[in-house]
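Practice problem 4.
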C-alpha cells in the first residue's frame, strides 16, 4: 500500500469522517440528494411562484367571490396547459442559449420583434404598477402609513436587489420568497369550506354563458398562462449557461441533452403544480368566505384581504395581506426582468442578472425604466389597483400571438437543430394555445352579444 493511501486511511480513522463511518455516510448521502433536488428546482419553481403575483391574487379572489366554487375546474384545466407551454419555453432557452426575443430577432422580421417586445414591455410595466399598488395597500392594512411610501420602498428595493445583489444569492432569495405563498394554504384553516362543493367545482365544469363568466375565464387564463412567464423562464435557462461555464447550449454541446430535458420537466411540473395549488387555495378561500357572504365585488387582492376580516377573522386577513407582499416581492423582479431580457435580447445587447451593471448597462436601464414607470403609475390619476383584473385579461389576449409564434419557432431546425419539439408535448402546447384563443374569442362574442 502506498504512503499516500496509508496517510489517507490514518487521517480518516482519526477524524471519524471517513467512508467507514456509517452515520457520516448516511448524512453525506442525504445532504447530497437534498442539495441536488434544490439545484434542480430553479427557473420553473420561481416562474410558477411568481405567477401568483398580487395581480393573480386579485383575479383569483374576484373569480372565487363572483362565481364561488364552480370556477375551481379552471385550475385543473390550466395545469397541464401551462406546464407544457413553460417547458417548451425553457427548452428554447436551454437548447439555443438565447431567450425567446433573442431567437425572434435572429429568425424573424424586425417588425414582428418590435411589436412583440413593445406589447410585453407595456403589459409588464402596467402589471408592475398594479402589483406595487396592491403591496402598498396590503402593507397599509397591516401597519398603517402612506401607500405611496410603500410603493417607493418596494419598487426601489426590488430594482436595487436585481442590480446589486450577486446573481446566485439573488436566485436563492427568490426561492425562499416562494414560501410566502403558503400563507394562502394557511388562510384556508380560518374558512368554513364546503369541501364537497369545492371538489365538485374542481372536477365538474359548469360553464355559464355570459360575458362576465367568459371574461373571468380569460382573466384566469391570462394571469395563469402569461407571456412574461414564457420570456422569463427561457431567458433564465440561457442565463444559467452564462453563469455555469460547464454548460453550453445544446445546439453546441449535445451530450447530456436528455438529462437536461428531464430536469426541465421536473422543475416545470413542480413549479406549475405549486402555482396552481396556491391559486386554487385562493379561489376556494374567496368562495368559502366572500361569495358565501354575498361579497362579490372585489376589485383587488388588497380588497380581498380587507373583506376577510369580518368573515374569517383578523388573523386570516393578516396572513392574506402578508402573502400579497411576499408574492409581490417575488413577482416584480420577474416582470421587470422579463421586460429587460426581451428588449435586450431583441437588440443583441449584453444581458443577464449575472453581469455587473457596467457590463450590461442598457439591460439594467430597461429593467429600472420598467419598474420606474410602474412606480410612477401610482402617482397618476390612473389607479393601477383597479387595473389588476383587466391586466390579466389583456395578458390573456396578448398571450395568443406569442404562443403561436413560440409553437412555430420550436419546429424550426434552424432554431432548435436536432431538438425540434414533437410528440405529446408539442400537441399539448398547441392545445394550450387553442384554449387561450377560444376563450378570447368566446369573451369577444359574449361581449358583443351581451351589448347588442
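Answer key:
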Amino acid at each position: 500500500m502506498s504512503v499516500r493511501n496509508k496517510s489517507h486511511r490514518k487521517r480518516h480513522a482519526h477524524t471519524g469522517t471517513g467512508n467507514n463511518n456509517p452515520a457520516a455516510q448516511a448524512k453525506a448521502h442525504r445532504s447530497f440528494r437534498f442539495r441536488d433536488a434544490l439545484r434542480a428546482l430553479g427557473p420553473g419553481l420561481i416562474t410558477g411562484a411568481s405567477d401568483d403575483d398580487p395581480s393573480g391574487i386579485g383575479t383569483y379572489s374576484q373569480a372565487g367571490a363572483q362565481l364561488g366554487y364552480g370556477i375551481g375546474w379552471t385550475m385543473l384545466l390550466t395545469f397541464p396547459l401551462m406546464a407544457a407551454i413553460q417547458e417548451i419555453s425553457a427548452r428554447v432557452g436551454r437548447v439555443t442559449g438565447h431567450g425567446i426575443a433573442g431567437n425572434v430577432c435572429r429568425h424573424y422580421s424586425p417588425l414582428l420583434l418590435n411589436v412583440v417586445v413593445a406589447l410585453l414591455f407595456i403589459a409588464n410595466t402596467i402589471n408592475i404598477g398594479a402589483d406595487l399598488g396592491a403591496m402598498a395597500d396590503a402593507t397599509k392594512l397591516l401597519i398603517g402609513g402612506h401607500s405611496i411610501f410603500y410603493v417607493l420602498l418596494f419598487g426601489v428595493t426590488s430594482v436595487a436587489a436585481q442590480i446589486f445583489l450577486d446573481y446566485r444569492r439573488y436566485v436563492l432569495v427568490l426561492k425562499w420568497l416562494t414560501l410566502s405563498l403558503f400563507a394562502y394554504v394557511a388562510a384556508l384553516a380560518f374558512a368554513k369550506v364546503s369541501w364537497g362543493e369545492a371538489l365538485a367545482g374542481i372536477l365538474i365544469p359548469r360553464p355559464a354563458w355570459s360575458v362576465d363568466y367568459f371574461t373571468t375565464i380569460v382573466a384566469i387564463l391570462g394571469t395563469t398562462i402569461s407571456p412574461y412567464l414564457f420570456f422569463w423562464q427561457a431567458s433564465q435557462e440561457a442565463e444559467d449557461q452564462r453563469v455555469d461555464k460547464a454548460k453550453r447550449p445544446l445546439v453546441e454541446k449535445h451530450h447530456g441533452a436528455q438529462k437536461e430535458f428531464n430536469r426541465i420537466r421536473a422543475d416545470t411540473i413542480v413549479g406549475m403544480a405549486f402555482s396552481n395549488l396556491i391559486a386554487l387555495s385562493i379561489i376556494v378561500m374567496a368562495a368559502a368566505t366572500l361569495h358565501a357572504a354575498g361579497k362579490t365585488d372585489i376589485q383587488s387582492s388588497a380588497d380581498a384581504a380587507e373583506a376577510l376580516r369580518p368573515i374569517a377573522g383578523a388573523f386570516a386577513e393578516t396572513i392574506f395581506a402578508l402573502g400579497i407582499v411576499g408574492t409581490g416581492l417575488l413577482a416584480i423582479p420577474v416582470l421587470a426582468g422579463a421586460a429587460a431580457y426581451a428588449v435586450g435580447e431583441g437588440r443583441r445587447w449584453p444581458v443577464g442578472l449575472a453581469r455587473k451593471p457596467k457590463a450590461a448597462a442598457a439591460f439594467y436601464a430597461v429593467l429600472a425604466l420598467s419598474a420606474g414607470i410602474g412606480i410612477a403609475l401610482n402617482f397618476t390619476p390612473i389607479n393601477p389597483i383597479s387595473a389588476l383584473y383587466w391586466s390579466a385579461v389583456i395578458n390573456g389576449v396578448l398571450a395568443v400571438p406569442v404562443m403561436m409564434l413560440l409553437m412555430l419557432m420550436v419546429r424550426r431546425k434552424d432554431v432548435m437543430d436536432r431538438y425540434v419539439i414533437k410528440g405529446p408535448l408539442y400537441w399539448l402546447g398547441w392545445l394550450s394555445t387553442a384554449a387561450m384563443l377560444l376563450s378570447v374569442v368566446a369573451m369577444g362574442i359574449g361581449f358583443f352579444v351581451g351589448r347588442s
